[in-house]
Amino acid sequence: MPTAWGAVAVTYKLACPLAQQNGLGARIATCAVFLAVGTGLMLHVRRGLLRELRQIRRVAGAAQGVLLRPLPPRIDGLDIAATQLSADRGASVGGDLYEVIGTEHGVRVVMGDVRGHGLAAIGTVAAVLGSFREVVHDEPELPGVLRKLERAMGRHLAERAKAEHSSSGLDTDNPVAEEFVTVLLLEIGRDGEVRALNCGHPWPYLLRADGGPADAHGGPAEVRGRVEYLGFGEPLPPLGLFPLPAELPVVHCGRLLPGEALFLHTDGVEDARDSEGRFFPLATALTDAIRPGPSPTSPKAVLAALLRQLLAHAEGFPSDDVAVLMLHNDRDEAPKPHDDRMAHQFK
After folding, report:
1. What parts of the sequence cross the membrane (predicted)?
2. Which CATH code for domain 71-343?
3. How large is the average pLDDT for residues 87-102?
4. Which range is least confidently modeled, 92-101, 146-155, 273-282?
5. CA atoms 121, 123, 126, 131: torsion sign
6. For the packed helices 24-67 and 2-15, what is the interaxial angle rounded to 10 degrees?
7. CA 1 → CA 41, 100, 182, distances in Å?
8. Segment (H or E) for 148
9. Overall pTM surpassing 0.85 (yes/no)
């Protein structure tokens, strides 16, 4: 098509008598012809680029559906909502990962954050998520799941090192040797008991309602606060930096009661800054996003309200990848009356 347009322009110049005249009218006509030729060529190129862009977006959407597939709205009595933003404009997948899977061992959750951001971290995201989805049904205990994730991460780094360098194995000067991923593993039993293993990732927040089930376990919910950061001491090292210790003690976090919710996030949320360099006040934003009443707002509504505040704070897209995940306990069963009062507390 560009050749055809060029041939039209050359033919006009050589064969058309009007193009060989020097008058003002002839020059205006010649300019109009060449303008039309150039416009037609640009429109043709634009249509081709748009077709290619649509095809790339379809391929990227299919890849995203496999890599970071949409979560079901409900798993085993838990209402679920999640979303993520890539730091690379136009990219729909970045260096953050999450997955929620119902198993015979309970609902198992992973939230992770690969060092770096954007498209460069997708390979590590695929390695960790692929391993999690495979082993989460087979391993009866969380330490076994984490061991398999560590081995998958090690294989991924070794393969990348071999592909990028002539020598096999990891080299201390190799950037791959510095790649790591923070991981938070959760297991929520049918009775609401929450168990966790944390490899360098931010701990979640517990979202309580005003009044509601928490009042049956030691006084008004507002005394403990509607939004509580669940910090459980020093986490394990991120996967890829150092070998995991021989013992992997599971943290018993207590019960997630009906009407309560867990909010998981990556550090890109709290690290988002405004024009004056102030960090995003996540706890305050969560408090504002929760609807007062007997139960929190639906997970989708809470995340939508939170992201609006985050984007307004960062004045656009944040500089790092962002992922958020919320699990709301919508089960009918409450803990048995003889359960210890502190079983509810996230120690």
Report:
1. 24-45
2. 3.60.40.10
3. 76
4. 92-101
5. negative
6. 180
7. 8, 51, 52
8. helix 142-164
9. no
